[in-house]
Design brief:
Layout lengths: L12 H10 L11 H8 L9 H11 L2 H16 L13 E6 L5 H5 L4 H10 L2 E4 L4 E6 L2 H15 L7 E10 L2 E7 L2 E6 L20 E9 L5 E4 L22
Parallel strand pairs: 6-8
Antiparallel strand pairs: 1-3, 2-3, 4-5, 4-7, 5-6, 7-8
Helix pairs in contact: 2-3, 6-7
Length: 249
């Protein structure tokens, strides 16, 4: 296992620089530094110079300074003996992805309100190029990923007939709004809340309720109209229903 490069002052600045240039590393195998020499002798370390031999011998026979270096490396290995498979969700991130350039305006919003809302909600910095390349920077990886999900949700093309599990975000007298994707809402007209006549929206749904909806239609202004009619809420497979004009029962 490669555990790092030790620059040894006693070897001189020229030697240290040459070692760094050649990419020579002390190879700690099972936390036993004698194994480094054995690994070298048996050809387990490829593409390095014979200075590894000198380096290993120096570590083995060095004075207190070298000993302390080895102790420090041992402590490092106890804390983390190999690279993590994934970064911590709270590690800083710089994420880059592409969206449809035609949908840049959707992300920015009128007067920049949408993108400002995303940055304030996630505490991130977002840059969008004319080509559709989006860069999200954050000191918190989880926040950067949340911003990416919101933007991807805003720019994802929704098709009529698709089903989504969403949450009711607003209720008005004529219907309820459901967030079907991060940052993307559709409305369920009161006539589409049930196969039965509904007197009041709150009789069927309330803010915070999680529902499965079907995209009923997308009008010429890009607004998403949803329906609950014919959509089971018990997790069973949804059955298609006849699409009727809004207002008809």
């Amino acid at each position: 296992m490669k555990v790092g490069i030790i620059g040894l002052g006693r070897m001189g600045e020229g030697m240290s620089r040459r070692m760094m240039k050649d990419g020579i590393e002390v190879w700690g195998y099972r936390r036993n530094y004698e194994k480094a020499q054995e690994a070298y002798e048996n050809g387990y370390v490829d593409g390095v110079t014979t200075d590894v031999q000198t380096l290993v011998q120096t570590v083995k026979s060095g004075g207190p300074g070298i000993f302390m270096m080895v102790v420090i490396l041992e402590k490092m290995l106890e804390a983390l003996d190999k690279p993590r498979d994934t970064m911590s969700p709270h590690a800083p991130r710089l994420l880059s992805f592409r969206i449809d350039p035609e949908l840049i305006g959707t992300v920015i919003g009128p007067g920049g309100r949408t993108i400002k809302g995303i940055t304030e909600r996630t505490n991130t910095k977002i840059d969008i190029e004319d080509t559709g390349i989006v860069t999200v920077a954050s000191h918190d990886g989880a926040a950067a990923e949340e911003a990416q999900k919101i933007i991807e949700g805003l720019t994802r093309r929704v098709s009529e007939g698709e089903y989504f599990d969403g949450k009711v975000t607003r209720v008005i007298p004529i219907g309820a709004f459901v967030e079907i994707l991060p940052g993307k809402e559709g409305m369920i007209h009161i006539s589409q809340l049930s196969d039965q006549r509904v007197e009041k929206v709150e009789d069927v749904v309330n803010v915070g309720d999680e529902v499965r909806v079907r995209v009923r239609e997308i009008d010429n202004r890009g607004r998403i109209n949803l329906t609950l009619r014919g959509v089971p809420q018990d997790g069973s497979d949804p059955q298609p229903t006849v699409i009727l004009p809004i207002g008809e029962s």
